[in-house]
Amino acid sequence: MSKSSQIILTLKSVLKAKGVKYADVAAHLHISESSIKRQFSQKDISLNRLERICDLLEMDIADLLELMHINNMQLEQLSIQQEGKIISDPKLMLVTILVLNNLTFDKIYQLYNFEKPELIKLLLQLEKINLIELRADNKIKTLISRTFQWQNNGPIQRHFENHIQDDFFDCQFTHAGELRIVINGMISTTSNQIIQKKIKQLSQSFSDFAYKDQNIGFEQRFGSTLVIAIRPWELPEFEKYRRIKNAKVFH
Fold it and tell me: Which of 100, 155, 156, 205 is the most exposed place for a label (fewest CB within 10 A)?
């Protein structure tokens, strides 16, 4: 693959991660959406336009090139089968989450009840699927990109939905570090789409902070989970009182 093609593919991954659509890029460049789609499809974007798109993404070309270099070496996503293997073993799942949060071998051994041979065996399983590289003296190097994501509706996400979220929401959200906001109202499809875009941007900010904070000592970091959702929805208790069933379809 040519360098220019790699740059365009990297740019597309950044657009997706930040929730920026082709229409947003077209508006920023003052050209039609069909034109920008064609340029991405043909992988033919001028340097000037590339710089302007980077401005929209609040980065420069040097950042894009660095990310391209990193992505060429790092993993974007596991397969369904690989996620299934991780989720089938609670210990492997735990170690996966810990190494993705940049914990060292010694810190994992200090905090969790693993014997060293057992921990090494688990790490070797992660190395086999190219998630990490286990180096001399049990040094762990993660091989995932900054835009790494679990499979949409894959084994990891379904595990969260089936087993974790009930425990997560079994909380009053009144202590330090906790926040829950529930808002209800009637909004248009356009407003819904705008809010979804802002949610995606917030999720990218969370990922950016998690990456940046890897350089902070473990004692100053806390395992944190951010759950944001929006959907056309009515309480079943309300819906049952409808005289006529709601026939509106969300597009």
Answer: 205
